[in-house]
Write a structure and sequence with these properties.
The protein has about 425 residues and is mostly beta strands. The protein contains no helices and 49 strands.
């Protein structure tokens, strides 16, 4: 790797501690994107930012490039995903012919899996030992529509297939793997208007609409948003229904009974922790994260944004928009903040990524965009500006940050040392 000089710079403020870059701060060059590569989306960095991959089109063919090495060409390939330990990478690819004989597959570490008539994008366990994805056999692509018809859809997790469905579920969203890597959950349709959340092979009660599940760290608990009448509520693994709101977001689990999620009433979004509403009045909230101890909570929040996004299905109330699988929150404009224990951090940004706690739970870092420039922030001070940055990770026992960055065609790993200088 080529080591590049770091621009003079950024003092970082974390909680009540002032922390500054130290002499070991450096930028490492991981590689560069060749001119002939038409990159589909932002490059994807491993969580430790030591590896980088991206999907590109070259000469009319799709390829995925991992650590500078291009994979086999196909007519379609998605951006890849890394395992949490950074040692493994997975993506889907396929040859789209418009005929019944189409073949799609998942690639894991250069190994091509079993082909199907169609597959969805994968998720991968933290240790990379298994991937989960939707697959279908016997489907046909209707010419000129991009819509597949017929066949059976099912989730593959490791070497096991799940229950078969009609294909009307949330098949374009990767299944959710529990943090322990032993369970998989996803949204499926039992029959028209009867939506379920399936965990392993056990399906929930049917609802008019549901959102994807969230798991506790040990995988023993999970919960998901479900539509009940004109409102939404969180339903846990035992079938217990929580308080009703106009809309409800996917939950995050802390210690004991601490479960956090977003909820909406009369157009205002706020955090709900342990079934109780917290302070705040936002256009949207999401990305709930607990610290390692499961006590402190951080999340993203938008102020001043407006509801936008795709049109609703016929008869669906506007409040349902954030929870329709694959449609997202639909918030446009406004300013985004990171909120830590009910207090906003910094001055707001055009866009923010999910917050990241340091190992001791005292520091919170996140990536943010202002205009065209991306930076990593820790409290009120930032790193240098880049065209793109990945989520930061605390390294060296929490005394430094690392993240991936793109500057022009250059792909970089940036580290920022954090030094405690006082309380």
């Amino acid at each position: 790797m080529t080591r590049l000089p770091v621009a003079a710079g950024a003092t970082l403020l974390a909680g009540s501690l002032l922390v500054s870059p130290v002499a070991a701060d450096e930028v490492e060059r991981l590689g560069a994107i060749p001119r002939e590569h038409e990159v589909k989306a932002a490059p994807v960095f491993s969580p430790d930012a030591k590896r980088v991959a991206y999907a590109a089109v070259v000469g009319g063919q799709s390829i995925v490039v991992v650590d500078g090495k291009p994979g086999a060409p196909s007519t379609f390939a998605d951006s890849p995903v890394f395992s949490d330990d950074g040692a493994h990478v997975a993506y889907r690819a396929g040859n789209r012919t418009g005929r019944r004989a189409e073949k799609w597959w998942i690639v894991v570490d250069d190994e091509t899996g079993k082909s199907h008539s169609w597959v969805g994008p994968p998720s991968i366990t933290d240790d990379g030992s298994a991937v989960a994805y939707w697959a279908a056999n016997g489907v046909t692509l209707a010419r000129g529509t991009g819509i597949y018809t017929g066949g059976d859809y099912f989730v593959v997790f490791g070497r096991k297939r799940g229950k078969r469905f009609s294909g009307e579920g949330d098949v374009l969203t990767p299944p959710t793997i529990s943090p322990c890597g032993k369970r998989v959950g996803y949204v499926a349709v039992k029959s028209r208007g009867a939506w379920q959340v399936v965990v392993d092979r056990k399906a929930s009660k049917s609802f008019p609409m549901v959102g994807g599940p969230g798991f506790s760290r040990d995988g023993k608990r999970w919960a998901f948003p479900a539509m009940l009448g004109n409102g939404w509520a969180l339903v846990n693994h035992r079938g217990k229904v929580g308080p009703r709101y106009d809309s409800v977001g996917t939950p995050s689990f802390g210690r004991a009974s601490r479960v956090a999620h977003g909820a909406c009433e009369s157009g205002s979004w706020f955090a709900v922790v342990g079934g109780k509403r917290r302070s705040g009045d936002y256009a949207f909230v999401g990305g709930f994260v607990f610290d390692a101890a499961g006590d402190r909570l951080a999340y993203r929040a938008n102020v001043g944004g407006t509801r936008g996004g795709p049109a609703l299905p016929p008869g669906m109330p506007p409040e349902a928009l954030p929870m329709i699988p694959g449609m997202g929150p639909g918030v446009e404009g406004g300013r985004w903040w990171i909120v830590v224990d009910d207090e906003r951090v910094g001055d707001g940004h055009d866009e923010v990524g999910d917050p990241v706690f340091g190992p001791d739970g005292r520091r919170v870092a996140y990536r943010a965009r202002d205009g065209e420039a991306w930076r990593v922030w820790c409290g009120g001070r930032s790193s240098d500006a880049y065209d793109h940055v990945s989520a930061p990770v605390f390294i060296d026992d929490g005394q430094a940050l690392a993240f991936g960055a793109r500057r022009g065609a250059e792909l970089l790993r940036v580290t920022v040392g954090l030094e405690r200088t006082g309380k």
